[in-house]
Sequence to fold (334 residues):
Amino acid sequence: MQVELVDILRCPATGQRLVLDGAQYIDGRVRSGFLVTERRDHRYPIENFIPRFVSRSNYAENFGMQWNTFRKTQLDSHSGHLISSSRFWKATGWRPEEIAGQWLLDAGCGAGRFAEVALNSGAKVLALDYSSAVDACYASLKHHPNLYVVQGDIYALPFARETFAFIYSLGVLQHTPDVARAFASLPPMVAEGGGLCVDYYEKSLKSNLLPKYWLRPLTRRMAKPELFALLKRLVPAMLTMSQALGSIPLAGRLLKRLVPVANYHGILPLNEGQHREWALLDTFDWLSPRYDQPQTVATARLWFEQAGFQDIELLRAGHLVARGRKPANAVSSF
Ligand SMILES: C[S@@+](CC[C@H](N)C(=O)[O-])C[C@H]1O[C@@H](n2cnc3c(N)ncnc32)[C@H](O)[C@@H]1O
Fold:
């Protein structure tokens, strides 16, 4: 942890400022120690260079396992493609020059595929996740001096209000127990005049029919290592089946959806090895989370309106994207 991070951190329970206690340093960064409230009534550990505001065991453990197993898979610097970069810029609509030098919050960073994109544009990125995905993110991106990593909960963000010029949360909200409340925690953290962008699964008749939703009642209850081992065996065959169905003229595009596997052939420019790796990663991502709660377009607009945001836009870019700007001199209803 960089010492200057203390300036923006706050106790998530009381909002108090925090001070370092018993810090051990390596190469100028805090490797271990504690963050303690000024009144000394709350204490949070710093472990492996990362402040931890949540308990190690929580509903997002599947994501910790997933992102530590596939630490680099979706980083553009590793895949050799601009897949994460293109999703980030399309979703946010921000320009590299406007985020350079600004504080950005990546709420639910996972392995840091989008944090990497923002860092490459010169932003100061606070990558936050509930799970041990933060360790994967830190391991891959710690060479960026502007990367700050925190293990924390979107429902109890450990920051001073209006700290961030830009906040994004991509592919996260649907995986929280109360999606509206998870969204509501973000607007207060956006600085006046700043931008907020979220994307998530869209709720529709088509999404209700996806075969993953027939399987999830079973798979989300399975022990994660067992589910992973099972998918490791099944995914190659499911990919072949999905490909074969996909090649049937006319009906193929619909038929291939019947196989519950993340098949990116014809969608992403991956090589065969990458197709298999991304298929295993994303099929596990579909079937393992405790929560998967798609939302409608109307709901997304309502949330931004209730937060008093302007320039609200909704678009479909892979997922459903919703974005807007906090007015300068805003009086937020949150
Ligand atoms: C599907 S992953 C997306 C990760 C990353 N944004 C990406 O697109 O690669 C969802 C992430 O949300 C995180 N998450 C779920 N609930 C959270 C919460 N309450 N607070 C912070 N992060 C949370 C999970 O741990 C997981 O890493």
About this structure: DSSP finds 13 helices and eleven strands in the chain. The CA atoms of residues 236 and 276 lie 7 Å apart. Residues 60, 63, 67, 108-110, 113, 129-131, 133, 153-155, 170-172, 175-176, 285 surround S-adenosylmethionine (CB under 6 Å).
